[in-house]
Specification:
Elements (H helix, E strand, L loop, with lengths): L4 H4 L2 H28 L4 E3 L4 E3 L9 H27 L5 H17 L6 H9 L5 H21 L3 H25 L1
Antiparallel strand pairs: 1-2
Helix pairs in contact: 2-3, 2-4, 2-7, 3-4, 3-5, 3-6, 4-6, 4-7, 5-6
């Protein structure tokens, strides 16, 4: 009989949330940077922000595509975490599936909704204000739900994960502010 997840939550699992948090931020921004560069823009890349070096895109239409790159890469990271959980049943892939969902939720809730990619994408596409945010969050939540079911993670286990994610989210924000 498989061990219950809370009995497998060990120091290694806890410490994995630190690189998962930084990787999530970096991979999200890599999505923006990659799309911008592919479209011919000279992009600047930091832990929490990407922009065209000269201050504007080669074409105004690039704004929507570059904006889509971040959430798309965030979804890809979470799906990759799910793939590892599905294939190997390892708890150690869970932070890489969970943190992207937590990060987008946290950013949308506390980071100023209008400043987030999902709001910008919705505005640029003329979609409802919350349309893209809802789509992104639902996809990420379904991914995390599938991981939780596969790993038999209950509410108690995930409450630990939320606390770990909150600490790591604040760690990344703090280090960005300190270095920025």
């Amino acid at each position: 009989m498989p061990e219950h997840p809370q009995h497998r939550i060990d120091l290694r699992f806890i410490l994995l949330f630190i690189p998962a948090a930084y990787i999530t931020y970096l991979f999200h921004e890599l999505g923006h940077w990659s799309v911008g560069e592919i479209l011919g823009n000279d992009m600047v890349y930091t832990l929490n922000y990407v922009w065209p070096r000269n201050g504007s895109y080669v074409s105004a239409s690039h704004d929507v595509y570059v904006s889509i790159g971040g959430p798309l890469f965030t979804i890809l990271q979470s799906l990759f975490g799910l793939l590892i959980v599905e294939k190997y049943g390892t708890l150690y892939a869970y932070p890489f599936a969970f943190f992207p969902m937590f990060n987008r939720f946290f950013s949308l809730l506390f980071g100023g909704f209008g400043k987030q990619d999902e709001a910008r994408i919705s505005a640029l596409l003329g979609a409802g204000t919350y349309t893209v945010a809802i789509i992104v969050l639902v996809v990420l939540l379904l991914t995390v739900t599938r991981c939780s079911l596969k790993l038999k993670m209950g509410a108690r286990d995930n409450s630990y994960v939320v606390v770990l994610s909150t600490v790591c989210q604040l760690l990344v924000i703090g280090s960005y502010e300190l270095l920025g």
